[in-house]
Amino acid sequence: MIRPRFERGRGMATSAEEQERGEVMRAGDRRAPPVPPGRRRGRLARALAVAVTAVPLAVALAAPAAGALGWPEAEAACRGGFRLFCHQKVERSLLLWGAPLAVCARCFGAWSGVAAGGLAAALFRSLERRCHDPRRSFLLGLVILAAAQPVATFAGLLPDASWLRFASAFPAAAACGALFVAAVVELLERRPVPCADDVSFPGAPNAEA
Amino acid sequence: MQRPDLLRPTLIPGLLFGLVSAIPILGAGNCCCCLYLWACGWMAAFLHIREIRRRGSTALISDGAMAGLVAGLFAGFTAWVVSTLVDVLMGDQRREMLEQVLDQMRSSANASPEGMRVMEQVIAWLMDPGIGTRIFLLLVALFLFALISTLAGTLTAALMSRGPSPTAPPPAPPGWVGGGWPAPPPTGGTPTEGGGYPPAGGGFPQGGGSTPPPPGGVPPGGSPPPYSSSPGAGSEWGYGTEAMDLPLGSEDEPTQPPPGGGEPDKGGGSQSN
Q: What value of ipTM does the predicted structure carry?
């Protein structure tokens, strides 16, 4: 990644092209320094990943909204799109404006979690960096939590409530969303972050030593 | 090192789980949190990462994501093709089945009017799909299969051990020119007198031949530290114990320290620039 470079007595060179041309920022120059290409690509990757994770959530919310607005074809399309992936039982769904969402409560929790986790990873770089080397026991705990709720409900240990389905799916899905954003940034930015056990990683800071 | 081909580990899970998702009775498994889609991504990422590790490379999170993405696209397309075929071949039976479901729901006592309206709408939309509906369903299938499978692949990559496989050859760091520590004498020599090989216990030679380890990098008498994520600690010995654990006394290395204790090792002890 190209970083703005301070030059003693000359100011700050702002990009690779300007460095080659010898253009530098002088003190008092009000022009904002241009965003380096690598960082721009990273921002684009984060925006793209967040948009992708938000689409299913938006479609799930759009179905009752379209029904309330009197657009039956749009509502049917939203619900029919999820037909292959969700049972869409009304008694197991959350309601919005008196109509059920396009997916059941557990799926809605999953899509909400994916979108929220993706947004959090895009906003907080420390979380995104952490996603390259996540704690496996933590992830496993979230997955087990999501899987344990239906078992506990079936055994009669927990009530069969929609909000509980939503809440059990949300944390694991949020972790998945954050991992997804980290993976997309890694793919598009081509600047992977080494993790603790990546001893052979070619981009590790140690590799150039 | 070249990455393995993505086609082979993704094609089989994609075709398998796409087919299973589109078969009418088996496809109900997807109602359990999109089970087949998660399984598709998991299997593809598992196969791909295992192949990467077997080649001695380190897998990344994005490797799992790519495997899940490609497998999800295969699965989505397969599911769409098979469900269209099923719809064409068994269209009348399917329509009758949907009408029976609708009748059962109408006759049940606890059916809410809102739920009935929604179900009737969806079933009517699915009963007579036109070409536009089919294209829409293809796009939806591709998107959702790819997204869920990518999420599954990413989660699999995060949960799996991603370092090189123990059976794979250790990766050579850049600038590695072979050589390394000369082997210790076969029977009780003086290891540090200009010989350049480490003393017993994995330490570093103190006399001649090798550059001493950087401060804080290697404790005296200890082995080099593993890779540390902090840039300062042991950064010149950053390839960890896996790369440094070279077999002492292998056949292609000198078995005796060179006389005079000059520069006995070409790469093992002097990686610090």
A: 0.71
